[in-house]
Amino acid sequence: MLKDITLGQFFPGNSLAHKLDPRTKLILTVVYIVGLFCAESFLSYGLMAALLIAGVRVSGVAPKALVRGLKPVLFIICFTAVLNLFYTPGEELVSFWIFTITKEGVLTAFFMVLRITMLIMGTFLLTYTTSPISLTDGMESLLNPLKKIRVPVHELAMMMSIALRFIPTLIEETDKIMSAQKARGADFESGSIIDRAKALVPILVPLFISAFRRADELAVAMECRCYHGGHGRTKLHVLHYQTRDYLVLSVYAVILAAVIVLARFGL
Asked: 193: which of 6, 30, 61, 235 is 20 to 30 A away, CA to CA?
C-alpha cells in the first residue's frame, strides 16, 4: 500500500509537459480544478476527461502510475459515493430499510467519483512532470506580488518544495521500518482497531526520530552553504514564457469557458 503512494514523485522526461514553464503548469492545474468543479453534465465531464487524457498522452507518464496513485484514497472515493448515493433527495428508484436510492443520487455519486478521480490524477500529473526545484521557482514567481505586503514567499515555496521532496523518502523509510517489524513478528493486520493502533507505535516512534534527524541534517547543510533565504539570490535557470506556454494556456482557457457556458445553460 505504501509503495502505491506516488505523491511528490518526479518522472524525468523530455515531453512537452516536462518542457512547459512550471508557472504555466501551476496555472493549468488551477484552471483544470476550477473546470472540474464547474462541470455539471456528461458533456462537461467528457471535455475535462479528454483534456486529462491528452495531458497524460503528451506527458509520457504511464497511466498505471496514475491509477496506482488512486489506491490510497480508494476508501475516501467509495465512502463519498455511498453518501451521495443514499442521501441525495429526488426521484426514488429503490428503497430498503432506512436507505433510499434516487435517480439524482446515482448521477451525483457517479459525477462525484469521476470528479475526485480526475482531480487526483490531474494534480499528480503536475508533480510527475515538474521537479521540486522547478515547482519552487514557479510558486515563488507567481506569489512574488505578495512580497510587497511582507509575505515570506520564498520561504513558503521552499517549505512546500521540501515537503513534496521528502514524501517519497518518508514513505520508503516507513516501508523499511514496517518490514523490519514484521520480520520480528509484529502483526499490523489482525485484531481490533485499538490493537492495530497500538501496533503502529513501534513504527511511528522510529519514523519521527528519522524525520527529525533528516530535518536537522538538512538545516545544518543549508547553514553550511550560507543559506539566508531568497534575498539577493540569483537563479541558474531563469523562467521565461515561450510560445508553447501561451498556446497551452489558450487551449485550457477555451475549454474552461466552454465548461462554464455548458453549466450556465444546463447542457
From this structure: 6
